[in-house]
Write a structure and sequence with these properties.
Four Helix Bundle (Hemerythrin (Met), subunit A), disordered N terminus, single chain, mainly alpha, 65% helix, 3 domains, Arc Repressor Mutant, subunit A, 0% strand
């Protein structure tokens, strides 16, 4: 029996089409080899539908469609009709392969694997907290839910820009410059001198404790927990202190650069 030519995009329609194809083979524990191609054709819309969900995320949709279809071929070969509906078996496989393709091929700038995996956990936590509170969760709330510090969450969120990093030719509003103009040439000592001078001025606006925290974190490379023990505060407070310091310095450097 050949697969029907009418597209079947619903899970129920696909399951019915697969069941019709296998009805003549009730004793086979797996899909017979001579029917596997027909089952793939009957379920091809399922693969295309899953691939389309991920369009516009930095990977060509045709590549995603090919990945999903190849995963469908493998799912048909492994499917055991006695275990239940075909779509319930196949969907996790297809989604997993598409996500794996993103992980392995979708990064323009590839972060460490730990950050790639952490990004999925942060995204899931954000979604759960958004439903729970009816608003966008704070970094501290996500960190508490995952049992990590604020800086880990922020670093993980930043790695998302590796899919589509900003263009260095992107204009900066109201400046007449572009993003690339802010980059320091590593071979130009003059630019280093200017940047150090601006940073030195920025450090003068900080209090004694803030300068100590910066020294412990970036010179002595202590953990946030160790810094908290040194200055008598919690690790969470150290994370917030560092966030406040870096934001103040960022604004100072932006103002100095514009001037």
């Amino acid at each position: 029996m050949r697969a029907p030519t009418t597209p079947r995009t619903s899970s129920r329609g696909i399951d019915e089409a697969v069941a019709d194809l296998l009805r003549a083979q009730p004793e086979c524990p797996r899909v017979p080899l001579h029917l596997q191609g027909d089952v793939v054709l009957a379920a091809i819309d399922l693969a295309d539908s899953i691939a389309t969900r991920y369009r516009g995320r930095g990977v060509d949709v045709e590549d995603l469609r090919q990945v999903a279809r190849l995963a469908l071929v493998g799912a048909v070969a492994r499917y055991r009709p006695a275990q239940g509906s075909f779509t319930a078996f196949a969907v996790p496989t297809l989604v997993g392969e598409v996500k794996r393709h993103f992980r392995d091929h979708g990064w323009v700038v590839r972060p460490p694997r730990s950050l790639q995996e952490g990004r999925a956990a942060v995204t899931a936590a954000q979604e759960e907290l958004r439903h729970l509170h009816g608003r966008q969760p704070t970094t501290a709330e996500v960190a508490e839910m995952l049992g990590v510090d604020d800086s880990t969450v922020r670093e993980t969120q930043l790695c998302a820009s590796g899919f589509r990093p900003a263009s260095l030719d992107a204009p900066l509003a109201g400046t007449g410059s572009c993003l690339g103009d802010l980059l320091v040439d590593p071979d130009d000592p003059i630019e280093h001198v200017e940047l150090k001078a601006m940073l030195r001025d920025g450090l003068r606006i900080l209090g004694e404790r803030d300068r100590l925290v910066l020294r412990l974190r970036f010179e002595e490379e202590l953990s946030q927990a160790a810094i908290g023990e040194r200055i008598g505060v919690s690790q969470m407070q150290v994370s917030r202190i560092l966030a406040t310091i870096t934001e103040r310095l960022r604004l100072h450097l932006q103002g100095a650069s514009a001037a």
